[in-house]
Design brief:
- There is one protein chain.
- The protein is of the alpha/beta class and about 500 residues long.
- The chain folds into three domains: about 200 residues, Rossmann fold, CATH 3.40.50; about 120 residues, AICAR transformylase, duplication domain (Cytidine Deaminase, domain 2, 3-Layer(aba) Sandwich); about 120 residues, Cytidine Deaminase, domain 2, CATH 3.40.140.20.
- It is built from 18 helices and 23 strands.
- The strands form six sheets. Strands 10-15-14-13-11-12 form a six-stranded mixed β-sheet, sandwiched between helices. A six-stranded mixed β-sheet has the order 18-23-22-21-19-20, sandwiched between helices.
- The longest helix has 30 residues.
- The radius of gyration is 31 Å and the shape is elongated.
C-alpha cells in the first residue's frame, strides 16, 4: 500500500478550537479545502480560501441544517477507490473531486444530555451527516485519512508540518480505527438514551476516558480504569491511585452515602471495619477507629463532613491509604499532607449509577444496584416485645452496614457504632461467631447491642448465640420456612425481632 499526499480536504466541525493552525498548515501545503456553514465562515475569516460544499453539490443546506453533506458529490469523492478504474470513471463523468482528508467532529450529544432534559434539543444533537462522513472516510482508509475529534489535532498538525501532508497506509488505518471508535461511542450514547424507556435487553457501554494503573489486583497483573474519576473527586495529594484503591473507594462512597448524620467510615478490602455516627466529628472518628484499630491499618477513610484540624490530628496517627471527604480545613490539609504517599481526595459529586456490571465467564452480568434502604417504618415487628426507640435507631444503622458487607454477613452495633461484623463466611453461624469474637477482642461491650443479618436465619441457632452474647434486638429479612423457631426463641428470652422482607446479599 502506497503513501498518499493530501491535496484536498473536507472540514465540517462543531467546535473550532485548535482548528486555525490546522487550516493554516493545509493552506501552506496548497490543499484544496471544502467546508460547510459555520466552519466555512471560520476559515474565510482567517483569510484562507475554501469552497462551500453547497457549491459542490448544487444544493443549499436544508431542513434547518439537517442536510448539508449527504450528497454523491461529497461521498463519491470520499469513497472512490483510487486504484479502481470504474470508480475514477464515475468521478470524471459526474465531475466529483477526490477528497483525501476528512476533518469532522460530531454534534455534542453527550454534553447536551448533561445540560438539558429537553427532548427536542437532545434529538437535534444526533449527528447524521457527520457520522456518515466519518464512517465513509474510515471505510476508504486506503486512500483517505479521517480526523474524527479535536484530540487528534496535534498529531495531524505534526503530520502536516513534519511530513508535508504525506500519510502512510498504516497511519491512515490507525486514524480509521479511531474513527470507528468515535462512531461506536456516539451510537452507544444515543442507544442508551433511547433505551432508558424501552429497556431493550442489551449490553452497550462506551467510555472514552481511561487510566493505566500501576498494576491490577496484584503486581503481576496489568490494570486499566475506564471512567472519569475527575467527575467524582479531585486528588489533592499523594501517590497514584491503584486498582484496589478504586474498589475500596466505591465501597466507601456507597456506604457513606447512606448516612445523613456526621459519620466516619473505615473500609478494608471492600468491607467496613469501623463506622460511627456522632454529633462531634472527632468523636465519630475515634469511635469508628475503636471498632477495629488493627484492620484500620492501611485502610480507606471516608466521611460526609469537613475534616477539621482536631480530627486530622487524630487521623494522622494512623497509617492509611486514602481519605476522601467533601471538604478539609486548611490546617487539616497541612497535617494530612505531611506523609507524601498518603492519598487525599476531595469529593465533588455524589455520583451513583443505577446499574452495575461484572465480567463473568465469557460474558457480563448486569443488574440494577441495590438502592433499597429500610427505614424504621419498613421494619415489621414479629415478636411479642417490640424494639424500643434506641434499639430501632441501632437496627437501622446496623442494617445499612450489613447491606454493604460481603455475604454471608452479620453486623453487631450499639449506640450508632459498629461493634464488629462477620463477613464473607460460608455459614451465617460462622459469621456471627466471627463478629462476637472480634468485638470481644477489642473490648466492645455487646450487652444491649443489636444484630443485623443480610439474609434470613434458616435455624434459631444464630438468635440463641446472639442472645447469649448480649444482643437484645435483631433485624433480618425473614422468609425462612423455619422463621417461627427464631421468633419463638426471641419471645421466650425477651429479644425483639423485626423483619424487613428485603434480602441484601452482596457477593
Amino acid at each position: 500500500m502506497r503513501d498518499k499526499k493530501i491535496t484536498s480536504a473536507l472540514i465540517s466541525v462543531f467546535y473550532k478550537e485548535g482548528l486555525a493552525d490546522i487550516v493554516k498548515a493545509l493552506n501552506k501545503l496548497d490543499v484544496k479545502i471544502y467546508s460547510t456553514g459555520g466552519t466555512f465562515t471560520f476559515i474565510n475569516d482567517l483569510g484562507i480560501a475554501a469552497e462551500k460544499v453547497e457549491d459542490l453539490t448544487s444544493y443549499p443546506s436544508i431542513l434547518g441544517g439537517r442536510v448539508k453533506t449527504l450528497h454523491p458529490s461529497v461521498f463519491g469523492g470520499i469513497l472512490a477507490r483510487r486504484e479502481n478504474s470504474q470508480d475514477l470513471e464515475h468521478l470524471s463523468k459526474y465531475k466529483i473531486p477526490e477528497i483525501d482528508l476528512v476533518i469532522v467532529d460530531l454534534y455534542p450529544f453527550e454534553e447536551t444530555l448533561k445540560s438539558t432534559d429537553s427532548e427536542s434539543e437532545i434529538i437535534e444533537k444526533i449527528d447524521i451527516g457527520g457520522i456518515s462522513l466519518i464512517r465513509a472516510a474510515a471505510k476508504n482508509y486506503n486512500d483517505v485519512i479521517v480526523v474524527s475529534g479535536r484530540e487528534q489535532y496535534p498529531d495531524l498538525l505534526n503530520l502536516l508540518n513534519e511530513k508535508k501532508g504525506i500519510t502512510t497506509h498504516s497511519e491512515r488505518k490507525i486514524y480509521a480505527a479511531k474513527a470507528f471508535q468515535t462512531s461506536s461511542n456516539y451510537d452507544t450514547a444515543i442507544f442508551n438514551y433511547f433505551n432508558r424507556e424501552t429497556a431493550i435487553p442489551a449490553f452497550r457501554e462506551s467510555i472514552n476516558s481511561y487510566y493505566t494503573l500501576r498494576y491490577g489486583e496484584n503486581p503481576h497483573q496489568t490494570g486499566i480504569f475506564y471512567g472519569e474519576p475527575d467527575l467524582i473527586f479531585d486528588k489533592l495529594h499523594g501517590k497514584e491511585i491503584s486498582y484496589n484503591n478504586l474498589l475500596d473507594l466505591e465501597a466507601a462512597l456507597n456506604l457513606i452515602d447512606e448516612f445523613t448524620t456526621t459519620t466516619y467510615v473505615i473500609i478494608k478490602h471492600n468491607n467496613a471495619c469501623g463506622v460511627a455516627s456522632r454529633e462531634n466529628p472527632v468523636e465519630a472518628w475515634r469511635d469508628a477507629l475503636a471498632c477495629d484499630p488493627v484492620s484500620a491499618f492501611g485502610g480507606v477513610i471516608v466521611t460526609n463532613v469537613t475534616v477539621d484540624e482536631e480530627t486530622a490530628a487524630e487521623i494522622d496517627k494512623l497509617f492509611f491509604e486514602i481519605i476522601i471527604a467533601p471538604e478539609y480545613s486548611a490546617a487539616a490539609l497541612e497535617i494530612l499532607k505531611q506523609k507524601k504517599n498518603r492519598i487525599i481526595l476531595l469529593r465533588k459529586e455524589n455520583y451513583k449509577s443505577d446499574y452495575g456490571y461484572r465480567s463473568m465467564l465469557n460474558g457480563v452480568l448486569w443488574q440494577q444496584r441495590d438502592s433499597r434502604t429500610e427505614s424504621v417504618n419498613e421494619m415489621r415487628p414479629v415478636t411479642k416485645r417490640t424494639p424500643v426507640s434506641s434499639e430501632l435507631d441501632d437496627l437501622v444503622f446496623a442494617n445499612i452496614i450489613v447491606k454493604h458487607s460481603k455475604s454471608n454477613a452479620i453486623v453487631l452495633a450499639k449506640n450508632n457504632q459498629l461493634c464488629a461484623s462477620g463477613i464473607g463466611q460460608t455459614s451465617r453461624v460462622d459469621a456471627l461467631k466471627q463478629a462476637i469474637e472480634k468485638a470481644r477482642s477489642f473490648g466492645m461491650d455487646l450487652k444491649g447491642s443489636v444484630m443485623a443479618s443480610d439474609a434470613f436465619f434458616p435455624f434459631p441457632d444464630c438468635v440463641e448465640i446472639a442472645d447469649k452474647a448480649g444482643v437484645t434486638a435483631v433485624v433480618e429479612p425473614g422468609g425462612s420456612v423455619r422463621d417461627q423457631e427464631s421468633i419463638d426463641y426471641c419471645d421466650a428470652n425477651g429479644l425483639a425481632m423485626v423483619f424487613t422482607g428485603v434480602r441484601h446479599f452482596k457477593h
